[in-house]
Amino acid sequence: MSMQTELNTITSTMTELSARITALVEAEGSTMPPEIFAELVEAERTVGALLRRLTRVAGRTL
Fold it and tell me: What is the pLDDT of residues 25-60, one digit of tens each?
């Protein structure tokens, strides 16, 4: 598997993960204990930052 293919696969997986976390926060956030909600929001931010970084790296390897 080429590096570009691998990066594209990872980026796709991270995009799906990001969407799933966001959906969970939006759908269930109001019913979660505040500490769990805060942790999930932080995870959402972290995954978003990682996704942006992976997208930049993937764009540089073309």
Answer: 999 999 999 999 999 999 999 999 999 999 999 888
DSSP secondary structure, 30-61, as one string: GGS-HHHHHHHHHHHHHHHHHHHHHHHHHHHT
- CA 30 to each of CA 5, 35, 36, 43: distance values in angstroms, whole numbers, following the listed order: 39, 12, 11, 17
Question: pTM for this one?
Answer: 0.83
Q: What residue has token string 């999930």?
A: 40
Which value, to the nearest 10 degrees, does the dihedral of the CA atoms of residues 53, 54, 58, 61 take? 70
